[in-house]
């Protein structure tokens, strides 16, 4: 009996080895993979690679958007960027909007996510309310707040009715910039709430309960348990907020139109203005290439810094 058992095991052992697929099967699997990935690859090339390549090519020309044969000017458009005071002003406004807006989006997003965390009808209702502004078009949001905060808007009509002076929400450069940032945060922080809520679901409740049993306060639990566990969510939210705010233009169009006196123009708004209003598509393309490179660089730096911070916390 023992000998027969050993011989049976010996004959069955080769069955467990992995056999290499025949060439025809490998070709079939490769063709299936190519067909499955083909539509996404074509969409990626058509929607991203081709426009980026075309923008870089146009940035080396003086094309006005109408002529059939644009003249090649090399790096002349990039050289002009260094001496453009309007672009420097727009870059400062864009960086201010990106920095302040990213901070506001994440602070409000995390704060409200902590408030509406948990399963209840009230939390479900407030989640919908908080996310709803993001559903609206940025152009609609801009026109809405322009009607509310404009010189003849609803707020100033109430203020003057009560005997006060008109508040320059959109007519003073400093006020207009702050107003624009506040509206951007109001319209977008619902997405951050959703992402932070998803991150809160992944926080181990056992760690929270253990910290509470050890006598930790709610602030200590949040600082030492919840916030470190939210590291990936914080990274995603910061990068998404930063990239979105760096290319802000539609809300500028409907809220301030770049005014007063061009003081709220962002780089993205200036790109569209130069490209289509001034018919300098080559110069606008050079600006767009620089904006793309700066956005990619900032996103990479922020991601690396956040990853280092996460690794330091977990060590």
Unreliable residue stretches: 1-11
Oligomeric state of the chains present here: single chain
Order of helices and strands: HHHHHHHHHHHHHH
CATH class: Mainly Alpha
Could you characterize the architecture of this molecule?
By secondary structure, the chain is an all-alpha fold. The protein has a single domain, classed as MetI-like (MetI-like fold, Orthogonal Bundle). Helices cover 75% and strands 0% of the residues. The protein has 14 helices and no strands. It has helices spanning 2-12, 23-58, 76-82, 85-115, 121-135, 138-149, 154-161, 173-201, 205-213, 218-229, 231-246, 250-255, 267-277, 281-314. The radius of gyration is 28 Å and the shape is globular. The protein starts with a helix and ends with a helix.
Keyword list:
315 residues, mainly alpha, MetI-like fold, 14 helices, 0% strand
Write the layout of secondary structure elements.
Elements lengths: L1 H11 L10 H36 L17 H7 L2 H31 L5 H15 L2 H12 L4 H8 L11 H29 L3 H9 L4 H12 L1 H16 L3 H6 L11 H11 L3 H34 L1
